[in-house]
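Researcher: Please translate sequence to structure tokens.
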Amino acid sequence: MVAATMPAAALLAELEPAVARLLERHMAQTKEWFPHQLVPYSQGRDFDEGYQWSPEETALPATVRSALFVNLLTEDNLPYYFRTIEATFGRREAWGEWNRRWTAEEGRHSIVIRDYLTVTRAVDPVALERARMAQVSAGLVPEPELPHDVLVYVALQELATRIAHHNTGKLIDDGVGYEVMKRVASDENRHYLFYRDLAAAALELDPSGMILAIERQVREFEMPGTGIVDFDTHARAIAKAGIYDFGIHHGQILVPVVLRHWGVEEVTGLSDEAERARDALVTRIDRIGKAGKRQARKRLEAEAAEARVPEPV
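Model: Translation complete:
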């Protein structure tokens, strides 16, 4: 059991006006879009009885297929993310209104990605459906004990998801596929901004509690999609393709959000425990940055070695 300096109920009550303000901002910035207008249905055809998928049906590299596979199955786990957020924040007033709106927007993501993949036959539909059944049947998502931790986790997770979708889209040599992932990433970015700024408001109300939560969530953070069938294999492929790795996690999430936007190193009035947690947090972020550089260096060395291998005569 973890503890915070401000009781959960008190923090949620104090944050409710900020939730209402950020929801209003979100709605003002949101643009309506329709999954059916993005999917190239004219490319579709029936799947005959006994059909077996082959990688030759798509020009997408295996690494990009892995990313699309993980991205979609992460979106499929929406019911459990909704459950966690509603259980933490409640269903009344602005908290409930935000959660329902967020859920409605997130629901489009699995629709449009799955339809695109099915129509273009970019991945094995049988393997995909079996993995979806396993993923959703297990219902594995992080379930932090305190709202402080939930705020931190969803901010980091939404940004990580946006980055993964965006970087995947850039590697799809198909304008339609790029637009699909770009549209989904745009939604994820607005969700990230909502949670990022709500966490910043919580940091002002309960600095010690939030610093402790940030340290826990950075220490325990896992790439979105953990629990998916063969996730480790897919994660290695995703890192190899430069879609999401330690370097990206450090340079595009931890530094700009945790160190700059939340300004954890400048927060004052911390308890002794929170001071120690902040020291550990900053040290960990530095170590992750160094690990990212090592990973990038090894990837470049591997690519160079692969380029030197002579073609068979």
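Researcher: Any highlights?
Model: The chain has a mean pLDDT of 93.
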